[in-house]
Amino acid sequence: MRRRERAAEVVVFIALAGILANVAIPAARDASLAGSARAILEEVADIEEISRAYQTREGRYPAHGAWGKTPVELESEGKKLDFKNRHAELRWRNWGLLGGLDMPLRAVHVRSDHPVLLEAVMSGYKGRVIMLRNDQLALVVD
Questions:
Q1: Which residues contact 93 (CB under 8 A, 6 or more apart)?
Q2: 13, 86, 119 from 48: Cα distances, Å
Q3: Tens of pLDDT along 23-58?
Q4: Domain parsing of the chain, residue ranges
Q5: C-alpha distances in Å from residue 85, one per residue of 38, 59, 90, 108, 142
Q6: What's the rounded Cα separation, in Å, for the pair 61 and 77?
Q7: Residue 80 CB partners (closer than 8 Å, separation 6+)
Q8: What's the mean pLDDT when you consider all of the chain?
Q9: Is the pTM of this model over 0.85?
Q10: How confident is the model at residue 102 (pLDDT cuts 50, 70, 90)?
Q11: CA 142 – CA 139 distance, rounded (Å)
Q12: Distance between CA atoms of 111 and 132, rounded to whole angstroms?
């Protein structure tokens, strides 16, 4: 009799551990992604500030940058910019004309495989956001 009770306790324990794991693991991942989204938004604010200072001084914005790389023009601006995040990559874009519109556009692109992260960045950004693809956003600077 005691052996059956012990076996039942083990089964209940395993079931509870599985339920807790199913709740805790996604919550921990979402918390990590939320932290990454905040870090991205802070980095984008720094990129905006430094690129505007560059534009004021040089009369133009920096040229395009590659994914995960700080544009050469912004490397010497005094603050280290981080275009790579644990869950995403950034790149600076400077379009002369967008889609034939007479409208120059500067933006920071964010690329990530995590839709939750992209949603958090979209909802936290104060400016215009353009959804480029399922895994990319453009946060419009100017």
A1: 64, 65, 105, 106, 107, 108, 109, 138
A2: 52, 21, 20
A3: 656 666 666 777 888 888 888 888 888 888 888 888
A4: 2-140
A5: 11, 30, 8, 14, 23
A6: 13
A7: none
A8: 80
A9: no
A10: low
A11: 9
A12: 10
DSSP string, the chain: -HHHHHHHHHHHHHHHHHHHHHHHHHHHHHHHHHHHHHHHHHHHHHHHHHHHHHHHHHSS------TT---HHHHTSSS----B-SS-EEEEEEESSBTTBS--EEEEEEE-S-HHHHHHHHHH-SS-EEEEETTEEEEE--
* pLDDT tens digit sequence for 57-92: 888 888 888 888 888 888 877 777 888 877 888 888
Token pair in block for residue 123: 């909802």
Record the tokens describing residue 104, joined without a space.
């120059």
